[in-house]
């Protein structure tokens, strides 16, 4: 069995809301995207073995920029995209964040190596999740799906929900995940740190 890939170092570089040199500086980008309150920040923190690299807000919808984190020197960036669909945001703010996400994925000329789409396995796929899958397939980005909060369901419910997600995932790998137990962490690291 190949050794588990490791993250030796992780540091915040900057947040952007539009064109910036970091998007095209030649460092591969692993983008993390998902709706608000799906556990995106917690997943990144578990991956890098740090509690506080990515700020986890008490209220969802805290991230309003595209945040870049340098991983293992300059091996790659983890790119934390704003969460979409935050219910308490105004329609105008929701639209602004969704446009920012789509701009990054479709028009920013970013060096995107892989996209990690994070879902709440309990809630299943939202319309914007389905739209996200369509965009990723259209653009030809390699992507995988993290079915987070797997610890919140019993085995029967988890199997049924995963079956439904896999049905809509097309060619993407679907990894059941729990930030509480770190279930799925090694599988995700192996996928995103492939040479």
Counted by DSSP, the helix tally is 5
Strand order in the largest sheet: 1-3-4-2-5-6-7
CATH superfamily: P-loop containing nucleotide triphosphate hydrolases
Query: Main β-sheet: number of strands, strand sense, barrel status?
Result: 7 strands, mixed
Helix percent band: 25-40%
Q: What's the overall geometry?
A: globular
The strand count comes to 7
Radius of gyration, whole Å: 16 Å
CATH architecture: 3-Layer(aba) Sandwich
Quaternary structure type: single chain
SS-based class = alpha/beta
List the main descriptive attributes of the protein structure presented here.
seven-stranded mixed sheet; alpha/beta; 22% strand; single chain; 5 helices; Rossmann fold; 195 residues
What does the model show?
The chain is an alpha/beta fold and 195 residues long. It has a single domain (10-192), classed as Rossmann fold (3-Layer(aba) Sandwich), CATH 3.40.50. It is 30% helix and 22% strand. The protein has five helices and seven strands; from the N terminus they run E-E-H-E-E-H-E-H-E-H-E-H. It has helices at 40-47, 91-106, 127-139, 155-168, 185-192, and strands at residues 10-16, 29-34, 66-71, 76-80, 112-120, 143-148, 173-176. It has a seven-stranded mixed β-sheet with strand order 1-3-4-2-5-6-7, with helices on both faces. The mean pLDDT is 88.
């Amino acid at each position: 069995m190949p050794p588990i890939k490791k993250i030796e170092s992780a540091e915040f570089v900057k947040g952007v809301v539009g064109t910036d040199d970091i998007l095209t500086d030649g460092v591969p980008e692993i983008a993390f995207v998902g709706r608000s309150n799906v556990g995106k920040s917690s997943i990144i923190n578990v991956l890098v073995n740090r509690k506080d690299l990515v700020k986890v807000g008490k209220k969802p919808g805290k991230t309003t920029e595209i945040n870049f984190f340098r991983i293992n020197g300059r091996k790659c960036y983890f790119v934390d995209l704003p969460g979409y669909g935050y219910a308490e945001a105004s329609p105008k703010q929701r639209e602004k964040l969704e446009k920012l996400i789509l701009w990054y994925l479709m028009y920013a000329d970013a060096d995107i190596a892989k996209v990690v789409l994070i879902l709440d396995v309990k809630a299943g796929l939202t319309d914007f999740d389905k739209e996200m899958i369509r965009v990723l397939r259209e653009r030809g980005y390699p992507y995988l799906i993290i079915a987070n909060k797997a610890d919140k369901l019993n085995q029967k419910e988890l199997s049924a929900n995963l079956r439904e997600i896999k049905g809509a995932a097309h060619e993407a790998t679907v990894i059941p995940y729990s930030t509480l137990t770190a279930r799925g962490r090694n599988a995700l690291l192996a996928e995103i740190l492939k040479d």
